[in-house]
Structures are given as C-alpha cells and as structure tokens.
Protein: Putative ABC transporter ATP-binding protein
Amino acid sequence: MSIGPGGPGFSGRRMGGRGFAGGPPMTRPAEKPKDFKNTLKRLIRYLKPYIFQFYIIIIMTILSTFFNIFAPKVMGKATTKLFEGFILKIRGVPGANIDFAYISHILLLLAGLYVLTSFFAYIQQYLMVGVSQKTVQNMRRDVFEKLSKLPLKYFDSRTHGEILSRVTNDIDNISVTLQQNITQFISSVVTILGIIIMMLTINPVLTLVTFATLPLSVFATISIASRSQKLFVKQQRVLGELNGHIEEVFGGHNLIKAFNRERDSIDYFNRINENLYDAGWRAQFMSGVVMPIMHFISNLGYIAVCILGGIFVTKRSITIGDVQAFLQYSRQFNQPITQLANIVNIIQSTIASAERVFEILDEEEEVADDAKQVLEKVKGDVKFEEVNFRYREDSPLIEDLDIDVKAGQTVAIVGPTGAGKTTLVNLLMRFYEIQGGRITVDGVDIRDISRENLRKIFGMVLQDTWLFNGTIKENIAYGKEGATDQEIIVAAKAAHAHHFIKTLPQGYDTVINEEASNLSQGQKQLITIARAVIANPDILILDEATSNVDTLTEIYIQKAMKSLMKGRTSFVIAHRLSTIRDADIILVVNKGKIVEKGTHRELLEKGGFYADLYKSQFMGAAV
Structure:
C-alpha cells in the first residue's frame, strides 16, 4: 500500500468508472478506434451469414418508420374536417354538420397505420435480436478458441481482468449496439428524410423556417458538448482515483488500523470526494444545459411556424390540419438528429470495443505441432542439452543449460527468486518454446511430440491451487476423464485427503465455492495432489507445493507427495530446503545457470551457494 500526501493513497492505479447518470449521452466521451474502417469491415464479416435477415430488418425498419411518419399527415385530415364542420356551424350555414363518418374512417386508417408500425417494429426487433446474439455467439466462440491456442507468454504479459474485460464487456457492448443502435440509426436516418419530405409536401416556406433553427441548434450542441466532454473526462479520472483509494483502504484496512492512519485515510478520501463533487457538478450542469437550450431554439421555430401557419390558413394556402401535422413534424425533427449524433458516438465506442476483441484474434498463436512421434510407454529419462532461452531479446535468462535426469530420480531445483526455476518447468511442458538446444524425454525431442501427448506424460502440483466451482469429487476427477467413484476415493486416500473430506457435511459431494474459501489452504493442496494421483502421470512436477501451509499440514502433504513420487521421475521446486533433503539430485540454479549439482550432503560439504542458502534459512529461523 502506498502512502499519498496526507494519508494512504494509491500507487498510480486507475479504476474504471461509468460516471453519473443524467445528461445527454451524446456529451459523454467515447473511446475512439485506431482503425475505424478496417475494424468495421471485419465486424461486417461476422454479419455476412445473416445478410438476408439483415436486409429484411432494414426493410421492416423503413416500413415501420414510414407508417409512423405518415400518421400525422392523416391525423391532419381529420382535424381539418372537424375544424371545417365547426366553422360552418358557427357561421350558421343551413344543414352544416360535422362529417363524423369521414373522421371515423380517418381514425380507423390511423389505427391501422399504428398497428402496422408496431407489427413491422416487432418483426424488425425479433430478427435483430437473433442476428445480434448469433453474431456475438460466433465472436465469443472464436475468441475462446483463440485463447486456448495462445502461448503462456500472452497471459503472463496481461492481467486477467483486461482479458476478461475484452471477452465479456467489449463483446456485450457490440451485442447491445447491434441489437438496439443499428436499427435506431436506420430509423433516425429514415425519420429525418421522411419528415423533410412530408414538411416540403405541406409547405416549403414553413420547412425553410424550421431549417433556419437547425444551424443554431447544431452550434449550441457542439459547443456545449466539447466543453462537457472535457469535464466528463475529468470526472472519470477523479472517480477512478476515488475507486482506487477505496479499494486500497478496504484491502489494507488491518494495516491502516495497525498504524493508526484512519484519520489520514478519511482526510484523503474527503479531498478526492470534494474534487469528484466539483467535477461531477460541472459536468452534469454543462450536459444538463443542452436540452433546455435545444428546447428554447426549437420553441423559437415552433412560434415562427405557428404565426406563419396561421397567416397561411387565413389566406387558405394550407389547411388547419396541415398546420397541426407540420407542428408535429417540426417537434419530431430535432429528436432523430440528436439521436443520430448519440448513436454515432456509441458506434464509435463499439468499433473501439470490436478493435480490442480483434486484437486478441490477431495475436500470434503457439508454434504449430509437428507431431512425428507419440510416446506411450515412458520410462522417464529427461535431458536438457545446451538449452538457451530468454523472455526478452536483450536479456538472456538460460544459456547452454545441460541437465541429465535418469528414470525414477527425484530432482530438486533450488535457487533465489528469478533464477529460472519455474522457467525450466515451463520449457519442459512447452508452455514456452526454447530458442536453442533441445529437451528430450526418453531420447525424443519434445518438439517432435504433440503438446497434448507431451502434457499427458506430466502431472503438476503447483503452489497456486486451482479448484473450480463444483464438488470435491468433480475437482479430483478433473485429472482423469471418466474416473469412477472408487478411483476418486483411492486417489484421495493416497493424497491423505480422504479423512478430512469425510468429515465435511456432504463428503465428496461438498461444493467448493467460487473462491474455494470454504476449504483451508492445506485441504485445497491435498485435493490438487489427489487430482495428480488419479491422473497417474509418468513424470511429476511439484512447484512450491508446501510453501503456503502450516507445519502439520506440510507433513501430510509431504507424505502424500512421497507416495505420488514413488517410482516416477520427479521435478521438485522448493524454497524450503528442508523438504528436499532426500532428493537424488539437487540442482542449484542462479541467473539461468546450474551453479551447483549433487545430493544434499554433498552440497553442504562443498560449502558453496547451496550451503549458504541452507544456513541462511535455518539461521534466520533460529533468530
């Protein structure tokens, strides 16, 4: 935890924030794509299999919008007929009556138009939901398949949250845009064109008056939007700081209390909260100003249309119903323009999301397998011959490494942090590819064996226990497809896990929750060992398997691992040197090289690097 000025702060971490509700969406800052054109083309390719449905959606949207636009014109005819009847009656014209039959006919026609509008809108929405969900389903499938083909270095160089955000949030963003905003975009364009045509057919002069207010509306919107965007960016940044501070405070509340820094933390929170209030107030005020100004400008045009319309009615240039219809059109005119601007902003953000998804699909995959040989009966001889490897081109990690492990031997790998211990395992499993030399199993170069075949040979028990949300039985059976209940129990007994499992309320059917917090660290480790037992691997890899458990649990795990390692070639990575005394060979690794090799006794007698490590651990423990 970092201490900022005046109290616990944050270490430069930014948390995403959505901002506050309110204000026209068009004023919100949108992430811009780097290559809009090519990303849009790739997104359209996903829509190609549904191009026929998409054409129907466009036709349905146009028809629905057209009937909706046509309705005010029809309603104007009823108004005109009603108005004329009233005027004749007021004037006392003999036999003058309101033509209710005609009005009823118009109202029925109007009802039919609205029914057709709703029907076409329903068909359009029904088809669009199917197209959008199918499209993102295919996209998710491609991304998930791609992730399974990516090398380990891709996941090591990115946070899980970032990858998860692309697979979930970005694809969901695409889904929402396809489902809602594409049809809204078409509808807005058709509405604008339709309204212009209808207004021109009613009266070109009134249309010009309405258009006269448009540049004023656009200027006002753009000028306010440009200012409010900067304010929303600041609001998002300050909100991110606030979220980061809150996360750190709750994550390290024990430390804050231990050092009596509660007051500093609260003061720091209050300062950020005050900044957020200021930024949020300004952003919301600026975005809130847009609509009143738009309404004011729109009302100026409305007044002008009313005055001119009244004059034209008195001169019998147009009917009262046409004026009513025109007023409805002028009221509707600004809405699709604002909506269109908003949708353009959203589409821009969506293309940016698609670009992030396509970045995953464009990542370089693992080197293709050249599976010339299949290993079935494995003895367990493993050799590293002049192996070279580096994570970065300018920084060699392993150079000319030679290791010769005989079948059935237990090889311990020790050394300081960053020496390359886990890297050796990653190379052996082909999580990373070597850049020089070769690694062989029973004399066969591992690059000539498929990764699937190679990884069946190995069983791994790692420091970080990975258990999925399911029963204990399912987690153990993960090591062997089609494992029987009896095999699961035998594996659990071999791992010394059977006893504690039977004490649980549901035994082997106990469900492990999402965080696996209903089991202790030692219990989780024993389950992972049982999983390795049931897999019955030819070669075993144990990576810091006892580093996070107490001494008593370590004894159980050590017993379980000895049982598991019996008769198998085993690679053991350990920080606790007391756990590898009985290893056949101890390899001391430092800066990617084997600096010492021998048994525990031989290395202690040599008095070199290993002896210093061993003494430092036990002297430190004694102190």
Summary: DSSP finds 19 helices and 14 strands in the chain. Residues 1-29 have pLDDT under 50 and may be disordered.
